[in-house]
Amino acid sequence: SDHMENIYGYLMKYTNLVTGWQYRFFVLNNDAGLLEYFVNEQSRHLKPRGTLQLAGAVISPSDEDSHTFTVNAASGEQYKLRATDAKERQHWVSRLQICTQHHTEAIGKNNPPLKSRSFSLASQGSANSPGVQRRPSQNAVSFFSVGHHRLPTGKRVPIMQPDHLVDVREMMSQAEGQQRDLIRSIECLPASGHLTSLDQDLLMLKATSMATMNCLNDCFHILQLQHASQQKGSLPAGTTISWLEPKISLANHFKNGAAQNFPAEINKPASVREEQSIAEPCQLTREPEEINPDEELEDICDDKEDDLGAVEEQRSVILHLLSQLKLGMDLTRVVLPTFILEKRSLLEMYADFMSHPDLFITITNGSTAEERMIRFVEYYLTSFHEGRKGAIAKKPYNPIIGETFHCSWRMPKSDVATDAGTNSSAHSPSEQVTLPKDLEGQAEPDYYTVKFVAEQVSHHPPVSGFYAECVERKMCVNAHVWTKSKFLGMSIGVTMVGEGVLHLLEHGEEYTFSLPCAYARSILTVPWVELGGKVNINCAKTGYSASINFHTKPFYGGKLHRVTGEVKQNMTNTVVCRVQGEWNSVLEFTYSNGETKYVDLTKLSVTRKRVRPLEKQGPFESRRLWQHVTESLRDGDIDKATEHKRALEERQRNEERLRAETETPWCTKYFLRDGDGWVYHKPLWKTVSAAQTQQTDSN
C-alpha cells in the first residue's frame, strides 16, 4: 500500500514533569511494526533509545490541543508525543493507525481466537516458551471471568432520550469496572511460569479491551453532543446543559461488576442507600434558591485535622510528587494526593472565617468613622485563626464549578455589644435606611442572623465568590477570590487574588480589603501553615485606611505567625491605632489615647454555623457533593476517597469539554460578573436602595 511507507521526523516526547518535553527523532518501521526513536537524526544508525511494538496498540489524538497524541502499546507502555502543527499530527496518527491495524490483523490471522486457546496455572509441562505451548485444559477466559452484559431483551429504544443515555452510562460504568479488574488480574500474574503477565495473547487482550472501552466512550460522547445540539435549538437562551450522570450513586460508580460493593456501602442505613440511588439524572438548575434559615440546624460536625500518622505513612508519595515538580510551577492543574485533604471544601473554609459573627455585627455599632475602621481591623485579624482546622497544613477540596455552600449564624442580641447613640435616629435623614417591605411588619426575633452563600464561579482560573449579610444591622460583605498556588521547593505558596467590600449601609460606608498569601511549610516532615504579605483596608468616604503586614518566619530566629499593622487618617496622615502580635494567638491593640487592649484568640467564643441537613441540600452544595469523600477520609480509607474524588473531577472535565464543543457558556447561579470581579445577584445594598426608592415615590 502507498500508505505503508516508512516515515520519520522530529517529534516532541513528554518524559515527566521535571524533564518536560524533548525533541526526539522518530522512525515508523512499517515492515517490523515498530515505532522507534533516537536522540537525533545523526544517531539513527545507533541502537534506538526506545521501541514500541504497534501490534495491538491504541493511537489517540489528545483533546488537550491540536498537536498532541498518544501511543498506548499493548505492553502498557505509553508515548505522549507532540507534532509541530495539526496537519503533521494527522499525518503521524493516520500512518501509525494504518500500521497498527495491519500488524494487529496479521496476528489475528496467524493465531486462532483466544477462547479456543488454552491456558492453565495448575498444569506443569516442559515447554521452551510458556507463551507458545499450552494444554487443552487451560482457559484464560474462564480464569479471568470476563462477563458479558446485554440490554434487557424486551427494551426497545426508538429515540435516544436523556434517561436512556443515563442507562447506557450505567452499563458502561460496569464494563469499565470489569475491564479494570481484567487488567489488574493480568498484571498480577507472575513474570515467569506457564501463564505470565507478558503472554502475547494476554497483552493483546489488554490492548483490545482498552481500545474497545475508548471507542465506546467516544461513541457515547457523540450521542451526548447530538442530544445537546437537538436541545440547543428548542431551549431558551441561557439554558445550560445538564450533567448526564448514572442513576447510581457516586459510591456505586466504581463497582467492579454488579455483584461487588464497597464494604462501607453495605453497612449504611437503608434510608441513606435509597437517597443515594434516586433514579434520575442530576439536573443542574441555575435559578437562585432562597434558603430559609429556619431549615438550618446548628452544625455538629467537628473535623479537626490533627492526625499526623497519614502524613508520615505517605512520605514516599510526597517524595514522588516533589520529584515531578519545578520551582515556581503553577499547581492549579496538578492533582495532589488525597491524604493531604481537609474534610471540607474551600467554600466552607471561607465560611469559617465568619466564626466570630458577634465581632462582625458590632463593626457598624462604632460611634465614629475611626472606631468603625478599628473594629473592622479587629474582626479581620481574628477571622484567620478559626479558618484553620488544626495545626497541620492540609488542603481543602477544590470546589467543582457550580458548587455552592450555604450557612448562617444566630447571635442573641443580648450578647452583641451596642453603643449609645448608634441607633438610626442619630443619623441625618439622608442616612436613614429603609428595609424592604417583605422585612417590615415581621415580629423581631431576639437574635441577629448572619447569612452566608458561596459559589465556585470559574474553574480555570479557579475563582470563588462569597457573600454574607446581616439584614437587621444593615451590613453585608461581598468578595471574590482567585487562588493561585505555586511550588516553592520545600513549601507551597497560595496567592489569594481578589477583593472584598464591606458595606455599612447605616453609615453609607464601603471598606475594600484584600487577603494575605498562605504558605504550607515543611511539607516533607510535619507541614504547617503561615500567612504572609501586606494587605490594605480602605474606606474612601471617611478617609481612613489600614495597612497590615503578615510576617513570614525568617530562616534564623524570629517568631511564627507575627502580624503588625496600623490604622491612620489619610488626610492628616495620623496613626490612630497600632496592632502587633500573632494572628493565631494574642493581638495587642494600642490606641491614640494611650490605651491598650489585648485579644486572646484562643479564648474567643466561636459561634457554630447553622447548615441544612444533607437530605435538604441541593446536589451541588458542598457537603452533599463531597459527602462520600469526607466519609472515606473519616474512615481512613484513602483509596476509596480517591475513587470518589476522581469521579467528581472526571465528571467536571467531561462537562467542561461538552460545553466547549457545543459552545455553551457557563451560567452562574448566585454571582454576576462585574468588570474583573463577581457580585452577589441580590445584594443588600440594592435591596435597601430599591426599598428607599419605593418609599420616596409613595411619599
From TrEMBL:
It catalyses: a 1,2-diacyl-sn-glycero-3-phospho-(1D-myo-inositol 4-phosphate)(out) + a 1,2-diacyl-sn-glycero-3-phospho-L-serine(in) = a 1,2-diacyl-sn-glycero-3-phospho-(1D-myo-inositol 4-phosphate)(in) + a 1,2-diacyl-sn-glycero-3-phospho-L-serine(out). It is found in: Golgi apparatus, trans-Golgi network membrane; Late endosome membrane. Its main location: Golgi. One of its GO terms (biological process) is lipid transport. InterPro entries: OSBP_sf (IPR037239), Oxysterol-bd (IPR000648), Oxysterol-bd_CS (IPR018494), PH-like_dom_sf (IPR011993), PH_domain (IPR001849). Keywords: Acetylation, Endosome, Golgi apparatus, Lipid transport, Lipid-binding, Membrane, Phosphoprotein, Transport. Residues 104-137, 416-436, 638-658 are annotated as: Disordered. Heterodimer with OSBPL9. This is Oxysterol-binding protein. It comes from Edolisoma coerulescens.
